[in-house]
Design a protein that fits this description.
Distance between the termini: 169 Å
CATH topology of the domain at 211-299: Fusion Protein Consisting Of Minor Coat Protein, Glycine Rich Linker, Tola, And A His Tag, Chain: A, Domain 2
Shape: rod-shaped
Oligomer: single chain
Number of strands: 3
Order of helices and strands: HHHHEEHE
Strand content: 5-15%
Structural class: mainly alpha
Radius of gyration: 80 Å
CATH architecture of the domain at 211-299: 2-Layer Sandwich
CATH class of the domain at 211-299: Alpha Beta
Number of helices: 5
């Protein structure tokens, strides 16, 4: 197979050895010198030996300098073989076990640290949750107390309003009862023929009204019929009762015009009047048609 490249440019041809040209030149020169020496030797043997004259010289002839030798191209040194890397030393079983124990200890330490961090997070979350519940409970307690306080204020305000209203009603009732009592007194005096005022001090009013001891006689007749268990105490309230009489002094109507504040005592007085039935006549033989009689639990 013939290459299509020039011999000097053939990429597959090995490169020429360095210094081949100089070596070839040295070889030619050596052969020429050898041929010349052989020729000179042959011609010396065939020619006659001439006479030779020797001359002595005081100086020693100098030896011819050797022919200059051209320095040959220094061949590159082949690369030194690289030393093989040292083989890793195989660990001993003790070292392997120690490394395994160290890895296990590190893994356990990491696991313990993660567990501690998890526990700390859970504890922090629990603390926050407890604080939140506590804050909510405190807020509810504050709201409850505020509502109770407001309710107490409203209740006190309502009680004060009710008390004021009751006091006003009581005063109005007392004023009305007093007015009714005065009207009854005027009516009684008119029935008896008196013309004086209720508080009049003239002799006409006194002579035309009931006698001085008539009220005591009426109370003495009604009092034994009052059945009431007195609870005692310092108070001895007074009840005013209006009594209407008919012919012969029979009682035809009775009502409380001013309460004593003791409902049981007021009822006991009314029952006693019902049981009395009739009033005795006054010293002039008459019985007032309308009378206002006062009673107390202790008389």
């Amino acid at each position: 197979m013939v290459s299509r490249f020039h011999p000097d440019r053939d990429p597959l041809r090995p490169p020429p050895a360095p210094g081949l040209g100089r070596g070839f030149s040295f070889a030619i020169v050596a052969h020429v010198l050898l041929v010349a020496a052989l020729s000179f030797g042959v011609s010396w043997r065939s020619a006659p030996v001439p006479a030779m004259d020797a001359e002595l010289w005081s100086a020693i002839p100098q030896a011819a300098a050797p022919k200059e030798q051209l320095p040959t191209e220094q061949q590159p040194e082949p690369p030194k073989p690289q030393p093989e890397p040292p083989k890793p030393q195989q660990p001993t079983p003790q070292e392997v076990q120690a490394q395994r124990d160290a890895d296990i200890a590190i893994a356990k330490a990491k696991e313990r640290k993660l567990k501690e961090e998890q526990e700390q997070r859970e504890a922090e979350d629990k603390r926050k949750e407890q604080q939140r519940k506590k804050d909510e409970a405190d807020q509810k307690e504050r709201d409850r107390k505020a509502k109770e306080e407001q309710a107490k204020k409203d209740e006190a305000k309502d009680k004060a309003a009710d008390k004021a209203k009751a006091e006003k009603a009581r005063k109005e009732s007392e004023a009305k009862a007093e007015a009714q009592r005065q009207e009854n007194l005027r009516r009684i005096q008119g029935m008896a023929g008196g013309t004086g005022a209720p508080g009049a001090t003239g002799t006409a009013a006194r002579s035309s009204g009931p006698s001085a001891n008539y009220a005591g006689r009426i109370k003495a007749r009604v009092r034994p019929n009052i059945i009431y268990n007195d609870p005692g105490g310092d108070s001895n309230p007074e009840a005013e009762v209006e009594v209407r009489t008919g012919p012969g002094g029979s009682i035809i109507g009775r009502k409380v015009v001013k309460s004593s504040g003791l409902p049981d005592f007021d009822s006991a007085v009314l029952r006693a009047l019902d049981k009395t039935e009739t009033f005795p006549a006054d010293t002039d033989g008459t019985v007032p048609k309308v009378m206002i009689i006062t009673f107390r639990p202790r008389e």
